[in-house]
């Protein structure tokens, strides 16, 4: 066997190994390798380790496409504990925001890489495809509308060895979703030692406290294996950056003393509990064969706010005519109650008529139950489970193989509090369980690879995957059609009606895939790679995709690289079958909008049809420069995406449409104002530049400077104006900052002291406030924030750190529409709207 030291004589030997490993299902195909030379010489065997330390450049320079290697240390130098927030700090093209009032997206926040939807980025764990979340983002600020991506927030930072970010289209290698790129989370594989960490932080305003404790332990699995386990537990108190709504203040001024202050809270949702457990195990069965297994279990309970229900004009609860009169229920059953009309003048109900209704047992208004109006609290319990087991090794004829089985399940069990089922009148409970979504994925894969130095490298494999999406109905009160429905009262738990038995069900889809990958060193300094992948899906048929990549070492210090590929994203089973009713803000106030399958008769009447896969054409071109301790990569990317899947804009329902829904047995259709469905209705072109610079100057011992910058711009090339509004087009193009970057200085001050200072830049963007279809636009200016951390090693085991995020307490621009719904700041700010945050951390390593 040729040793790694000998292989490194050839300019692309590490990539030869990398590509062969890529096609065994790991992202390592895109990363460079380094030899642990001392151990290799001592044991006379080949040792390979992924490059990625604090002192080394983050971007790897020997790959035909851009790859970032993010070590565990970069995640620990942050006050944030959620993986989405941590990732947005270290990957400039990755954007995520708080989602304070966003239905199920409050539980699993959608994130965007390279300006595309969450499900345009493929997520791997130890090189294996990660299952997607059960949550579908129904309110995603345009870009994420209808997306169903994986939930990376279940991954604790302490469990990670490193993260590899492939910033290029890779559907030909990995299949569906790998359009914007691929993120591979590598779990720790230590067989001894460990770390225990406790952290506490809160915002400068004194709210949002977030205690956390985490631990990682490595254990031996006989003399030839490891069993590495990690756990994390945390909570998060809510915050409030709210002002009193204008309508609520008007009620107070008119003498209503029961109105809450503030009536509606905009802030970080409360995380009541968040527990995460991961394990990673491997065992060498012999010199040529290794068994492995890894998986997780996670559970979190998150509760956020909702829109305030005004006690004079909330449709279906307090009024049926826009607030001219109160909605009075006759409880007699035969309409013999002779209930009086309660006129509303300047927001004040006629006090005499209201008193008469309250005194009459045959009449009812919800002002009796909630005289100051009410604000529902929406939340849910998210559980996530996965297990992957496999066997890998090398045959006698030097063919590498990897066979694995995988299982992943994500469940979102919803609840809503402080609300009512209007149609039940005074018999309505105030807490409901509207039901749950379940995403289940199972798979099997066989990956083979064979390579010879100076000739060709080949790899290929087969995969099978089965996806299932399930809907479980809620408790009866959450969807029941009560006796007051015929009098104009709303049906179902107001704000998030429960899933009815006829909505519940299980839908599945299988797909098979086959791929081949070839690599050739044309000359000593020129490498060419190629891949082809075929997939067949039960529902929409087949797709074939390809990729070509190349890197040319112009000199010892400078390389040019590029790639071109086609890609696809299959519509999810959930997008094809989901049913949901959500309360959204509209120019006419709160509106109940139903999301129906695209093949539902009402959807078909509005233009719906079965979904097709999205297709993409990607190309990239870049350069790599290495001059001593200075390292730079600059890459341009271009992504043409056709038949993109999204929700339509709300389509108003006529009386005839509602009658048709009622005829189908959808008895709560009378409460719907509009309908949406998923559709392939627009094409986009996204282009941008990624710049990564690392410099560790000799003249400043122990220092490292890192610059990461991204510019991304999306243009909507075509769309269906019947389904996609102008405001949604603008959101797709401008709802995220075009530019984002970080400049980080880390410094070893002494043997015991370390420091970090980071400057963050966020470009300007446009917010479609309250998803109001452009009626409430906000042009938000660019911003600069700073993060800082100081650490001290007490001894070999104990370490103390203190730090701050948003050190100088920067807030977004004031919201010009604050009085309408009470949000003091734009709610989609990429750096949040809570201001500065300080934290402390204690770590014990052994």
UniProtKB/TrEMBL annotation:
Pfam family, one: TonB_dep_Rec_b-barrel
InterPro entries: Beta-barrel_TonB, Beta-barrel_TonB_sf, Plug_dom, Plug_dom_sf, TonB-dep_rcpt-like
Keywords noted in UniProt: Cell outer membrane, Membrane, Receptor, Signal, TonB box, Transmembrane, Transmembrane beta strand, Transport
Database matches in CDD domains: ligand_gated_channel
N-terminal signal peptide: 1-34
Subcellular location: Cell outer membrane
Residue stretches making up the TonB-dependent receptor-like beta-barrel domain: 383-807
Record flagged with keyword Transmembrane: yes
Keyword Chaperone part of the UniProt annotation: no
Topology of this chain in the membrane: Multi-pass membrane protein
Highest taxon, organism lineage: Bacteria
Residue ranges occupied by any TonB-dependent receptor plug domain in the UniProt entry: 62-182
PROSITE patterns xrefs: TONB_DEPENDENT_REC_3
Coiled-coil stretches noted in the UniProt entry, renumbered to this chain: none
Record-stated family: Belongs to the TonB-dependent receptor family.
The name this protein goes by in its record: TonB-dependent receptor
């Amino acid at each position: 066997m040729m040793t790694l030291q000998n292989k490194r004589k050839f300019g692309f030997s590490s990539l030869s190994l990398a590509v062969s490993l890529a096609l065994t299902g790991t992202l390592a195909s895109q990363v460079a390798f380094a030899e642990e030379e001392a151990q290799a010489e001592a044991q006379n065997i080949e040792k390979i380790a992924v490059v990625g330390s604090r002192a080394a450049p983050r971007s790897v320079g020997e790959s035909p496409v851009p790859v970032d290697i993010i070590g565990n240390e970069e995640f620990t130098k942050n006050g944030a504990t959620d993986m989405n927030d941590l990732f947005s700090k270290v990957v400039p093209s990755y954007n995520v925001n708080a989602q304070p009032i966003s239905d199920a997206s409050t539980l699993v926040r959608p994130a965007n890489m390279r300006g595309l939807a969450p499900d345009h980025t493929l997520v791997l764990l130890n090189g294996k495809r990660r299952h997607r979340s059960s949550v579908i983002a129904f309110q995603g600020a345009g870009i994420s509308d209808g997306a169903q991506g994986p939930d990376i927030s279940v991954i604790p930072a302490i469990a990670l060895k490193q993260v590899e970010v492939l910033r290029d289209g890779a559907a030909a290698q990995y299949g569906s979703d790998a359009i914007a790129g691929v993120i591979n989370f590598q779990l720790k594989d230590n067989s001894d030692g460990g770390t225990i960490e406790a952290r506490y932080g809160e915002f400068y305003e004194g709210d949002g406290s977030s205690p956390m404790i985490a631990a990682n332990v490595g254990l031996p699995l006989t003399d030839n294996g490891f069993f590495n386990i990690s756990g994390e537990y945390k909570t998060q108190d809510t915050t409030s950056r709210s002002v009193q709504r204008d309508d609520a203040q008007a009620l107070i001024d008119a003498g209503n003393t029961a109105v809450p202050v503030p009536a509606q809270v905009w802030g970080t949702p409360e995380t009541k509990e968040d527990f995460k457990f991961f394990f990673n195990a491997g065992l060498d069965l012999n010199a040529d064969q290794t068994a492995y297994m890894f998986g997780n279990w996670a559970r979190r309970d998150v509760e956020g706010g909702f829109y305030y229900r005004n006690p004079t004009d909330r449709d279906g609860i307090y009024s049926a005519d826009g607030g001219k009169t109160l909605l009075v229920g006759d409880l007699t059953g035969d309409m013999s109650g002779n209930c009086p009309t309660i006129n509303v003048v300047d927001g004040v109900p006629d006090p005499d008529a209201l008193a008469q209704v309250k005194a009459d047992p045959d009449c009812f208004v919800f002002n009796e139950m909630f005289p100051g109006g009410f604000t529902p609290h929406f939340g849910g319990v998210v559980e996530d489970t996965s297990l992957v087991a496999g066997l890998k090794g090398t045959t006698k004829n030097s063919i590498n193989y990897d066979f694995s089985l995988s299982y992943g399940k994500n469940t979102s069990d919803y609840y809503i509090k402080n609300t009512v089922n209007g149609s039940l009148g005074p018999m309505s409970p105030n807490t409901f369980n509207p039901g749950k979504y379940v995403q289940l994925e199972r798979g099997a894969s066989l990956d083979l690879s064979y390579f010879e130095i100076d000739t060709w490298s080949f790899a290929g494999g087969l995969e099978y995957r089965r996806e299932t999406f399930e809907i479980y109905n809620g408790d009866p009160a959450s969807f029941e059609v009560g006796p007051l429905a015929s009098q104009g009262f709303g049906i179902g738990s107001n704000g998030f009606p429960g899933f009815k038995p006829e909505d519940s069900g299980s839908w599945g889809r299988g797909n098979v895939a086959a791929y081949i990958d070839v690599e050739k060193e044309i000359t000593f300094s020129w490498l060419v790679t190629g891949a082809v992948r075929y997939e067949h899906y039960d529902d929409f048929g087949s797709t074939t995709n390809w990729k070509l990549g190349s890197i040319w070492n112009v000199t010892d210090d400078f390389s040019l690289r590029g790639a071109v590929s086609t890609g696809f994203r299959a519509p999810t089973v959930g997008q094809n079958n989901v049913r949901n009713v959500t309360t959204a803000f509209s120019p006419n106030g709160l509106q109940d909008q139903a999301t129906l399958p695209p093949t539902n008769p009402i959807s078909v009447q509005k233009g719906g049809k079965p979904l097709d896969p999205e297709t993409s054409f990607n190309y990239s071109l870049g350069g790599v420069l290495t001059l001593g301790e200075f390292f730079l990569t600059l890459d341009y990317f271009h992504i043409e995406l056709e038949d993109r899947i999204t929700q339509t804009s709300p389509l108003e329902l006529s009386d005839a449409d509602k009658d048709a829904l009622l005829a189908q047995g959808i008895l709560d259709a009378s409460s719907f104002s509009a309908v949406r469905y998923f559709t392939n209705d627009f094409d986009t072109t996204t282009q941008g530049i990624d710049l990564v610079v690392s410099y560790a100057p000799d003249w400043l011992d122990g220092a490292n400077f890192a610059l990461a910058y991204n510019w991304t711009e999306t243009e909507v090339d075509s769309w269906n104006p019947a389904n996609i509004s102008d405001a949604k087009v603008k959101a797709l193009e401008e709802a995220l900052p075009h530019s984002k970057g970080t400049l980080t200085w880390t410094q070893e001050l002494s043997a015991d002291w370390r420091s970090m200072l980071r400057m963050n830049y966020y470009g300007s963007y446009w917010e479609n406030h309250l998803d109001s279809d452009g009626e409430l636009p906000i042009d938000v200016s660019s911003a600069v924030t700073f993060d800082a951390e100081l650490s001290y090693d007490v001894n070999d085991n104990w370490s103390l750190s203190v730090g701050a995020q948003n050190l100088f307490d920067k807030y977004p621009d004031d919201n010009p529409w604050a009085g309408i719904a009470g949000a003091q700041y734009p709610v989609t700010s990429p750096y949040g709207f809570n201001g500065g945050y300080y934290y402390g951390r204690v770590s014990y390593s052994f």
